[in-house]
DNA sequence: GTACCGCTGGGCAGATTGCCCAGTGAATAC
DNA sequence: GTATTCACTGGGCAATCTGCCCAGCGGTAC
């Protein structure tokens, strides 16, 4: 579960140059190719690296508006609400949070006006009592993981 | 900027099997390899596909607790607060939202107890007036983009 | 002392990549 | 109507990388 320094360097390198191959990585890191391969296999089977899916920018797809909606759920309707929200393409993420029956929902829309349509669709479901929406203006720190990886790698004991 | 049906299929295929190569994709999609290559290049230079970085699971790294903090910022301190927060590895994302001087901050921590340490570090800065934290319990819909891509692809006009 | 484990450094065949080309069909410009 | 542009096809090429194998080496655990 814990990662060591070499694991950290592999992940960082992979994040900086995703198209890089195992062979080139081994050259940059100064280790044998088999080592990098084994580390990568382990990181993936550990679940540390979930995958290498394409990172798609909703804005470039025509959905430049991001918002968060806090939903208050009627008792016992949680499952139905989840099923409902998962059918809405503009719902990018759904989290249940502390507080009675609350969910946090990440939305995108084509425009501020379009956001109204999305919200109507989101809250147009019986189990949702109340919704409060916050529009995102800027994203000073886009979703990142590298600093955390570096911290975890620094704390881990090296395997060699 | 708009994507068509083939673009959508490329992105979905790539999301499902990230390790797939251009050649294999062209076979699956029934088009020439050069076509897939050209589409991919266009999607990347368009910014629709930002990259193929590894998706790292913070929980597997030893940070199983996720939380959101809403921060109230002292007037004119926005820039300093951003700089401060970007130095905290446990801050995975930072967004500015509507409402006076508000920011939304995605955090992770090693445990609920450790979350206190992280929050202390986050709010231990002059420009932050008040912070309110919500702990994430479940993640019924993990960050996803496929449904949105499919919707965008269905709406787009085919290029052929 | 022995077994285990991770790393090294090498080799191999097969597949893939990046790059090139000419030809075709459709839409657009003139 | 004709010319141009554009995307796609289908093919070929050398260079590279991958997946897979092996023996050897140095720690560590028992």
From TrEMBL, chains A, B:
Residues 3-64 form the HTH asnC-type domain. GO terms for biological process: response to amino acid. SUPFAM superfamilies: Dimeric alpha+beta barrel, Winged helix' DNA-binding domain. SMART domains: HTH_ASNC. The keyword Transcription regulation applies. Coiled coil: none annotated. GO terms for cellular component: cytosol. Pfam families: AsnC_trans_reg, HTH_24. One of its GO terms (molecular function) is sequence-specific DNA binding. Keywords: DNA-binding, Transcription, Transcription regulation. InterPro entries: AsnC-type_HTH_dom (IPR000485), Dimeric_a/b-barrel (IPR011008), Tscrpt_reg_AsnC-like (IPR019888), Tscrpt_reg_AsnC/Lrp_C (IPR019887), WH-like_DNA-bd_sf (IPR036388), WH_DNA-bd_sf (IPR036390). This is AsnC family transcriptional regulator. The lineage of its organism: Bacteria, Bacillati, Actinomycetota, Actinomycetes, Kitasatosporales.
